[in-house]
Input
Amino acid sequence: MKAVFLTDRGKVRQHNEDNGGVFLNRAGQRIAMVADGMGGHRAGDVASHLTIMKLKEIWEETEKIETPEQAENWFKEQIKLVNVTVFQHSQQNVECEGMGTTIVAVIITEMFSTIAHIGDSRCYILNEAGLSQITEDHSLVNELVKTGQISKEDAENHPRKNVLTRALGTAIFVDMDIKTIIIEENDTLLLCSDGLSNKVNEEEIESTLNSEKSIKEKATTLIDMANEYGGEDNISLIIVEFTPEEFYGDQQ
Output
């Protein structure tokens, strides 16, 4: 198993409000996380940093996760806890009022992966069937597409594309989507902020992930492409590759 995290400020933004990383628990299991501090809100970088650091601290003290139920319950309990922490911070610090963040996170075990997300940061899987999006955006335009008010093509350039229907830290309670999938040898997971998914289409993502490049080169290529296409937003991604020779062995 190989994993890489990369983040880039992009070509327009003055600050990088994204955060993320890949971290180990006491049993050597990984959690991969990407958070995108809400653009247009104050202190988005504070929200994303606080979210990732708090979840990292909790994960590093977590014992072995053995079942999907344990992984799903971990997300339910800890993300709710961190949501309260971020919300209270925004209430107690006037400069952080209204801040929030997306979160997409995956608990990775040898038998399964459990994904949790809030907002429009995404998780994709590349397997024998090709590239598919696992998560569903919590955004206004996605709701409009689902209800048939606009087409998927219209959504690409909709003026309110960045409006979220859910975010972490903006209210005392938050809903999250959680699902568990079975991972096979040669599968690849991609987690990313919308700075990537808004700029690089799925065909380009799939082609890059299928290339013979190293995992670091694939990540760099995707970020370079997003910048070439405008780079108006921060760009963050995690690639996790489940290689045959390592699938049942030690995690790299």
